[in-house]
Amino acid sequence: MSTNPTKQGEAINDRRAKALQQYGLDPAKLPRHVAIIMDGNGRWAKKRGLPRIRGHRAAVKTVRDTVEFSSEIGLQYLTLYAFSIENWQRPKSEVSALMRLLRQYLVKERPRLMKNKVRLLCIGRRKGLPKEVQDELSKTINLTRRNRGLTVVVALNYGGRTEIVDAAKECVRKALRGNLSVRQIDEELFSRFLYTGDIPDPDLLIRTAGEHRISNFLLWQISYCEIWITPVLWP
Ligand code: IPE
Ligand code: IPE
Ligand code: MG
Questions:
Q1: The whole model's pTM is what?
Q2: What is the distance between the alpha carbons of residues 197 and 187, in angstroms, rounded to a whole number?
Q3: Is the C-alpha dihedral spanning 192, 197, 200, 206 positive or negative?
Q4: Over the stretch 166-221, which tens digit does the pLDDT of each residue have?
Q5: 208, 37 in Cβ contact below 8 A?
Q6: Which residues pair with 226 in a beta bridge?
Q7: Which residue in the list 4, 26, 87, 216 is annotated as catalytic?
Q8: Which ligand is nearest the CA of 52, by number?
């Protein structure tokens, strides 16, 4: 495991060139930031006569493969919609199974994330997540914070409208403290109060499982994004 940033950079470039050649990809045409609405786990399980949770379990492997591939081709940012604010309305047993899987992923995946030089970030209301998930999330984010390869942004307890409301609140708080004047507020400044802070907007949004819906995902950030919907189920 190299901690030297220059060496890390060289190794990443080398691996990237090989992968791009292997897949016949033109580096000039690659997006910088891809966001994915990972949908269809339940349908995947149903088709096989399995309980929904088996679909969620299979989805973890797809996440692993997607992170690995994105990292290989040298994508800079990958945002994954893993749990929405609306998803709390699902049956309690499904929610707790999802939280368990999430926690397991955060622990088990650490060596692989480090090996691939992946940096993990999270967007969403983190404080609304179970304590055990918050703890493992903080540990993984902290461990990977110096990695200079792909940045994986996981959206957890995330809602696009909530994000805009939270940003507006922050903005007002700062103004009330006298650290911001109304005149200064423009799109550029406001966007810095969003969970995504200085992460560039996605260039491509992918939704699996065929629904033509945004489901409250990155409402502000996808203003100019291309959208690709595939019928393929996420797992
Ligand atoms: C997406 O798959 C996973 C999460 C929302 C956590 P679904 O569970 O929504 O699968 P479908 O849409 O029921 O097939
Ligand atoms: C979107 O999928 C949310 C995530 C992928 C986490 P959902 O299945 O929850 O969204 P709807 O119900 O189709 O809008
Ligand atoms: Mg769904």
A1: 0.95
A2: 12
A3: negative
A4: 999 999 999 999 999 999 999 999 999 999 999 999 999 999 999 999 999 999 99
A5: yes
A6: 204
A7: 87
A8: 1
